[in-house]
Amino acid sequence: MNLIDTHIHLDFNAYDDDREAVLQRAQQQGVRWYLNPGTDLGTSQAAIRLAEKYDGVFAGVAIHPNSTASWSPEILASVEQLAPHPKVVAIGEIGLDYYWDKSPKSVQQKAFEDQLALAARLEMPIIIHNREASEDVIAILRQWIPTLPASLKGRPGVFHSFSAPPEIADAALELGFYLGFTGPVTYKKADDLRAIAVRVPLDRMLVETDGPFLTPHPHRGERNEPAYVRLVAERLAALRHME
What we know:
- The protein is 37% helix and 16% strand.
- It is an alpha/beta fold.
- Helix 2 (41-53) links the parallel strand 2 (31-36) and strand 3.
């Protein structure tokens, strides 16, 4: 079985000492492709460099909501300059994060809306980061969806590391989004998340690690890495009684 880790921060310094070995272990587990999103201009550029170095790595470029405190038209223009690279396949990760107090909500919302408009203009799918901001994220997306070109209708992007309530899953699916599942779906106390995962259509479900974070069982507490995306896929398959 060939796998894609649809969200992995290979550029983070957690992998600096053994990045080659990390990728080799992933290959041994059938992981063939990787999507490395950006979280600011520096990590977006680093994602592109990794994508240039490794055939199976692709990049997203964007400013993460926790990095938007100094948001400006100039920063948006810098993101746009990175986007045409042939191995950039998404605008992300973008969204809202009300858990951390690193950027005012109004600034996060402005950055989100500006990057959504950029994605529509460039006809590129988005990677959404949503933490304790579900209602505002859905409200903004409902305004954005009608502006999309035909090429993005029905596939506007993914809610990465989905962890919101069932009604948000329903709203996201109604808007055409994919839902990405990570290590927490393997955790003992994640019954609510597994209940959502069971009823998501297979053709709207993605697997990811979000490495180096959210390591799946039985490696929880260790650094996450793309080889472990197989554990997520296997847990989801077991929930659906699939081989």
